[in-house]
Amino acid sequence: MLVRPATTTDQAAIHAVVEAAFGQPDEADLVDALRADGDALLELVAEDESGAVIGHLLYSPLATDTGAVFAALAPLAVAPGEQRTGLGTMLMEVGHALLAAQGVDAVIVLGHPDYYPRAGFSAAAAKTVKAPFSGEHFMALALTPGALDRPVAVTYAKAFGIPSP
Known about the structure:
- It is a single chain.
- This protein has a single domain (2-157), classed as Aminopeptidase (3-Layer(aba) Sandwich).
- It has 3 helices and 8 strands.
- The chain has helices at 11-22, 26-36, 87-101, and strands at residues 2-5, 42-47, 53-64, 70-78, 106-110, 129-130, 138-142, 152-155.
- Strands 1, 2, 3, 4, 5, 6, 7 and 8 form an 8-stranded mixed β-sheet that branches.
- The chain is globular, with a radius of gyration of 15 Å.
């Protein structure tokens, strides 16, 4: 198994994996739109032993009202035959380490409350984040200690189609 930065030659395979993982094209179209808008902050793929793309993760920048550097994790996709193998968690661990090295202070995700805490996310950590979301599905992870200790408003990339808070 190899996790590496995505390249332009991976785009068709990424689209196929994301669409298969979600059972519809919406998330794959989101990846394409984020990339086209220049809002792919970090994009990773996982390859199997044959070199086939079997997983994908994209982070986009979140504008903040405090100057802190935040990223949105969306989407995370693993090919249906590879799900429940730890691949998604591995992609997040690699991604978080790379983001931290780039100076990203925190990561926000809107996702399943039983899944994302495996990679350190929590709804409690997101309580200081003002966004169009809240509740147990809206989670955050501080990559810099204290990054989520004070209130911060975030604005998502245009491709998400989410109004500012």
